Amino acid sequence: MFIDIEIIFNNTYGFTQFTYKVPPNYKHKVAVGDIVEVPFRNGVRTAIVLKDHSENTHAQKIKSIIRKIGHVDRLQLKYLEQLAISNNINIGMLLHKYVSHLNLSKQQILDKHRFSINKNSDLHLRLKKFKNVIFVSSLLEAKDIAKRLTQMGKKVDFYQKTGGADEFNRYWGSVKNFQNIIILSVNFEKITIDNTLNFHFYNTNSYSYNLPTLNNINIIESSLMKFKIFKGNFFYYSEFPSLEFFDKVNNYFIDIPTVEFKYIYGNNLQDCLQVFDRKFNDKKLEIYSMNPDIQTISPKHKIKYEMSIDNYDTVIMFNPTISHNGILSSNRLINFIKKIKYFDDRDIQIIVFSTKKIDLNKQLTSEKINKWAEKEKKERAKYGPNMNIKVFKIISSEEIDITEYSEYLIGPRFVNEEFQYEMKIQINKKYNYNEIMSIYSIFKKANFDRVRSL
Hints:
By secondary structure, the chain is α/β, with parallel strands linked by helices. The protein has four domains: about 1-105, GIY-YIG endonuclease (3-Layer(aba) Sandwich), CATH 3.40.1440; about 115-240, Rossmann fold, CATH 3.40.50; about 260-375, Rossmann fold (3-Layer(aba) Sandwich); about 390-450, no CATH class. It is about 25% helix and about 25% strand. It has twelve helices and 24 strands. The strands form six sheets. A six-stranded parallel beta sheet has the order 6-13-10-7-9-8. A five-stranded antiparallel beta sheet has the order 2-1-4-3-5. A five-stranded parallel beta sheet has the order 14-20-17-15-16. Helix 1 runs antiparallel to helix 7 (about 220-230). The mean pLDDT is about 95.
């Protein structure tokens, strides 16, 4: 009997799976999902079994596994597969850097579940009486929420102050009962979900929920995958729900302050610039613009194009929009809201150049957004990307035969001396994890980008 394994290590090894023998003392005792120790190169590595077979192999001197040390069951493995597939990595790397197989092996399907999507500002209203675990994206956010909840009369038993792994591990290892704790989202995989715990994910659109060292795995997405498989009590908070992740929004909301916009109208950008200079000719402004085509006529003003540079007092937008062909782009809307709140918090005046009469405060209401959002939701449900349909754009310098993988791939299109492919995987339907890893392997030298917007 033979098994194919992935090494649990900080390396996908080109998405290669390695074949080992099962020795007689483990005959009929090793199966898919087992965690084993194997001799690998000049040492011993931990690995996960992903296929067992009795196929004859022509490889010489196939090594035997050393011993079995753990196991993840079918549903636990399904979670790992879907998370790996969605992020162009393999399970071996996931188990090394993000998910502990020991923790995951304790996770069972629960008999209860609750789920809701809420405004950031409603966090204090959704907290349950006991055992609220509030996940945040930064230490500053943890401190801020702890302060606000305390001012509202809520007890905060613990919040992270240093971010070190030991800080959380020491607390979680000793606590039995609590009302509210606030911890960094990177600790999500350390907690076994049960019926008594209430998970609250605050400010879910924050970029800090992405893990850069793991192809930007998004912790919100991984938590939703876990909820769909194992259930539990999960509550999400944002300024507006990302329709890539949340496909069952009953009431759309926008959690944004009323902001003062100053409008300048013209037939084109040049007209707007001329009106702007006449209106502000007695002032010296430090300006930030998201549009590199904007140039101020008056030399007294200075213009910057990097938002990270904070020394500006004015921002100029030109024909801002959050829709395309009548369909909302929730990712674009979320980005727009974040910028508006950023400017408003710092008392930066917002000037809107527009070629038509608009009122952004009226447009940025849930009533106006509802119709657009429903269209986006329908488009995503049909074509993706969403929680069930993962879409990738692949660009290769050489043409690759994909005949064997036509179930997942289309292409190529030859554009700008490059070969472009599209890969689409429906993780809520039947898929073959090992085949998908083979695709990742043949494209390992290509640019592999995950598509998130319509």
